[in-house]
Amino acid sequence: MFTEERHQTILDYLAEQGRVTVLELAQRLQVSDDTVRRDLRALDELGFLQKTHGGAVSLEVPRMARAQRAQVLPQIKQQLAQAVVTHIEPGQTLMLDAGQSVLAVAQALPDMPLTVITHALDIANALSQRPQIRLILAGGLWDARQRLFAGAQTVTQIQTLRADWAIMGACAVHEKLGLTASDAADAEVKRAMLAASAQTILVADHSKTGRSEPFFVCPAQHFTHWFTDRAPGWVNAPAGLQVIGAGHVSINTEKTA
Description:
The structure is a single chain. The protein has helices spanning 3-17, 22-29, 33-45, 66-69, 74-85, 100-108, 121-127, 152-159, 184-195, and strands at residues 19-21, 49-52, 55-58, 93-96, 114-118, 133-137, 141-143, 148-150, 163-168, 172-174, 178-181, 197-203, 215-218, 225-228, 241-243. It is of the alpha/beta class and 257 residues long. It folds into 2 domains: 3-59, Winged helix-like DNA-binding domain superfamily/Winged helix DNA-binding domain (Arc Repressor Mutant, subunit A), CATH 1.10.10.10; 69-243, Rossmann fold. Strands 6-5-4-9-12-14-15 form a 7-stranded parallel sheet, with helices on both faces. A 3-stranded antiparallel sheet has the order 1-3-2. A hairpin with a 4-residue loop joins strand 7 (141-143) and strand 8 (148-150). The protein is elongated, with a radius of gyration of 19 Å. It starts with a helix and ends in a 14-residue tail after the last strand.
């Protein structure tokens, strides 16, 4: 098994179990303990996990550095994005939340006349050369870590606009606690986008499910559509739940500049 395949297997297992031991991995991968330790050290240095004595634990995606978050589940994000954009029709107006899953949606938008409202600079950049898209960037207080605008000015601008769709990402989504965010300003922008839109889409892979963050956005049942790669197994699954793909975790472990 090549190094990249071992890294993928380790990250798949961590995504399922949350923690792993060197002994478990050596048996699963049929390699030496020293090889496993080298793999864990490399993945730790890349920011994908936290190495511990005798093993490793997974990192929570919202607390990863942005460069690492961008490399988590890329194929799944693309699959979800392709499913989302089948619902978009020419002439519609979209509110696009920040985050890597919604960025994938922006990149997958078909070549048709659309109006896109966003507070995320990466999404604005991705659409800036699309002549059929009328782009509205909701400015405000710049957040360099998340590469978005937030604060009262951003919220006020969004409140003056209306959209056919709000397409939202998630820090965490829980059956009882709903959609939550790790940052109060982010939660406020999300609530404004949802309130200003006729229909709502949540695009969130399985790593966001069953978790919660401090700042409430909305109930999980609020969304008319929820695209994910693995059914959450809740007692009351959202009516608009659509499971796309096989739920396989794919993480690019190559270093980025």
